[in-house]
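Following the same procedure, the fold was encoded as tokens, giving this record:
***
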Amino acid sequence: MGLFSEVGQFFETRLEEFLKAHPQLELQAIAEQLQEQEQEANRLTQDLQRQLTQVEQQIAQVAQDIQHWHQRVQQAEAGRRPDLASAAKAREAALLRQGNQLWGKMQGTKKRIEQAQSLLVQLQQKRQEVKQKMDELQASQKVEDAYTSSWENFSSTSGDRQTYNSATDPLEAQFQKWEMDEQIRQMKQKMGR
């Protein structure tokens, strides 16, 4: 058992190091995880909607049964049959209790649907944030690549001139990468990783 946990820890550490070295892949993994959670939230919402429909149908059926037995109570009382009236009242009371339980179940299901939908919105927002960060990182990478190629061209032709363009400054690119890594770390903390 100890060997397996050590090997698992080793691979987990290597994976974390690899993802830190490749933030685009890390963001992509987060986006995929969020998408899976979003799909799960959608499935949960659909299941809860089906449950809600079933409970509403059961409530409608119980309401009809209550009306039926209420009429039976009135019929037995009009026919001077207290034994039947008493039994019909007991049946009506049992149906009222069942209706109350179903009503509570319906309210609980509605609340769970609201929570699932709220979670879905949060996941969609998080996924949009991750997509935005991926786009920013990709744009930053393009700027860095453009800088590298222009710097190579510049250094081969310009000699010792030291003029800096903020869009192609390697130090600025390093700061942008560092800021992006910091934002990714903060997003991971918010997500509870």
